[in-house]
Specification:
Elements (H helix, E strand, L loop, with lengths): L12 H30 L3 H28 L6 H13 L3 H25 L1 H8 L4 E5 L5 E5 L8 E4 L9 E3 L3 E4 L1 H4 L5 E3 L4 E2 L4 E2 L4 E5 L7 H14 L3 H28 L2 H11 L2 H20 L2 E3 L2 H7 L4 E5 H5 L5 E7 L5 H12 L5 H12 L8 E6 L3 E6 L2 E6 L7 H13 L2 E7 L2 E9 L6 H11 L3 E5 L4 H11 L3 E3 L4 H14 L2 E5 L5 H6 L2 E4 L6 H6 L2 E3 L5 H36 L5 H19 L14 H33 L6 H30 L1 H4 L6 H22 L11 H25 L9 H4 L1
Helix pairs in contact: 1-2, 1-4, 2-3, 2-4, 3-4, 3-9, 4-10, 4-22, 5-7, 8-9, 8-10, 8-21, 9-21, 9-22, 10-21, 10-22, 11-21, 13-14, 16-21, 21-22, 23-24, 23-27, 24-26, 26-27
Length: about 775
Amino acid sequence: MRTEATECVPEQPARRRTRRWWAWAPLVGLTAAVLAGAVLRIAGRAGAADLIWAAVTVVALLPAVWSMLRAFWHRHFGVDVIAVLALAGALGVGEYLAGAVIAVMVATGRSLEAYAQRRATRDLRALLERAPRTARRRGPGGAIEVVPLDRVAVEDRLLVGPGDVVPVDGTIDDAATLDESVVTGESRLVQRTAGEAVASGVVNAGAGFGMRATKSAAQSTYAGIVRLAEEATAHKAPMVRLADRYAAAFVPFTLVLAGLAWLLSGDVVRAVSVLVVATPCPLLLATPIAIVSGLSRVARRGVLIRDGGSLELLGRACTLLVDKTGTLTAGRPRAAETIVAPGGDRNEVLRLAASVEQLSPHVLAAALVRQARESGLALTEPTDVTEEPGRGVSGRIDGRLVNVGQFTGELPEWADRARARTELAGWSAVWVSDDDGPLGAILLEDPVRPDARRTVRRLRAAGLRRIVMVTGDRPATAAQVAEAVGVDDVLAHCTPQEKVNRVRAEADRAVTVMVGDGVNDAPALAQAHVGVAMGATGASASADVADAVLTVDRLDRLADAVEIARYARRIAVQSATVGMGLAVLAMFAAAAGRLPPVAGAFLQEGIDVLVILNALRALGGGLRRRDVPPRTRELLARFAGEHQAVRDVLAGLRDTADLVATDPASPRCLPAVRETHRRLTDQVLPHEAAEERELYPALASPLGSDEATSTMSRAHVEIRRQVDLLGAQLAQTEDGRLRTDQIPDLLATLYGLDAVLRLHLAQEEEEFLSLDPSDSAPARR
């Protein structure tokens, strides 16, 4: 869609169609001339036919000679010399039809190559065509002016109209509906709320909205993607250079064989036959077609690879080093749990903390504000806000002084238990307090990506033999994440220099891939054979030195890229090997006098078309992930969203269990247990029943069988049994109080439910919800 403000003017469709037709014109013209000669030969005009075929041979010979001389000038000794000798030899011995067929063969190869590259690079060209050139900027008086993109500065206020391309990275002022397919590869429209970050290059699919620029055009996401796309279309893959190296051995072999055939038989026609069938189009065309096809496919999956060389190396990789924070984990703190003082209100504690933190730039503040908004809490504008680095923020909310951050006084018993739980889990605690003491604590975690373990398994299946996690985090936290995702080794408390040293050591043993997202990962990414940056959330420094960038915030796209790279490389090697093997057999037959020039030319034409069509197979296949139907995607997204409500019930369940364990005589205890049972019955059990009824049957096809969900169904049975048991225990209470003998069984039920539900949710998110290939709920929760 073209817009005045942000879209560049694309090439006209009619002109593009004309250029495509002209690309086939040499092949069509030469083929028509050869057929015309055949008609003349059948009509008995052999002289005229030979004249036309000779002209076709000359037309093909002249550009081939020019290409060969240009290669010699650049000190490249390639296989063009064989085509030149074959065409010239056919003219010299009067085999004009053979020469004409060779000419058509060369034109066919070039036309197929051009077609394959146009198809394989169309996604990369689309990025370049959609690059924004201008933006609508609000002036000091509110007036809108259209300015060149390079004049947009950080903090500028911009307007993005319907259908416009977002010109720079920024944060939006209003709710927006966005098409992020160009940047992420995901076709589903995405809803963004006010204050959320938006990347340049995405398209406004709804009403116009305002935004604030957070990066200049040159530093924005889309500019980096365009640079990678330009480099990807300009570089030559090592497999192509490998073809030139093969030519250094293949050309002398061909000349020697042709010379021996002539010398031993005394028939120069045999030498010409050898040259005719020796033209190695499989090496010249099939390998680059397969590699470029792979580049196009990974681009559609949301992975921009710098050049064919990086793709070829990715297809040979044996070792993967991966950063933890932002790569195996979400990289953004999430409120895992809110613990409140006895009698306190969890939502009120979160609201107070988020209200005070609204003006703080700290990453933990953003997590609190985001969590409060997702919970639908109305925030209050704070007054008298002060922030002390390393200690926290304080401000007045409705006249009440609230402190958010560290708590330096003596902790009461409930708070001391919360602190101990935080340390054991490896989380961070943000204390919320007033003049009377702590009101509660918000426990923040950096959750493991739901798709991380599945991705590690896919990478192993693709051929990566060693996976190492490197992180600057504490050993205990690193060990927990490593065990959760299943890596082979862990390097914790790792400095940037230590990361570089480890990457260098691994690279000395095998082809090594490094994945990271931060500025501190940039040196290690540069040191690896293939550096992969999490470009959707990472720093531009890491993306600038990387060989590949994941433009969508999903780790499983790395597994897609590795599988596609290995498949494309395998197709390239297969095409070259089979094609050259058939050509060598034909050369021996020609040297023995069993294959005349004309028959050899037609045979070589068939070999060339065969291997090129085989190379085009790299445009599809190779992925182990099963396709997920659109209806199943909708179900996955729906139930992923419902998991947050289940987690809210879980938080209350844990609070209730702790209350029963510490103060069973409290008058609040039994009502809390009853409320927990009600929420389990009214919210959790209907959710589990709907999954059993709707989601699990829909997953049978993507997962391969109905049995794939059987263990989750068994968990549903156990959850219902425990909830029913809790109801039966409540029915035995007398006089509104818990009996002493009831408490152990009640605690076993409550804590058992907590453990089973948490494990069940984690397994569902890892095994099922991460199947959704969109950038949806599992990656954002």
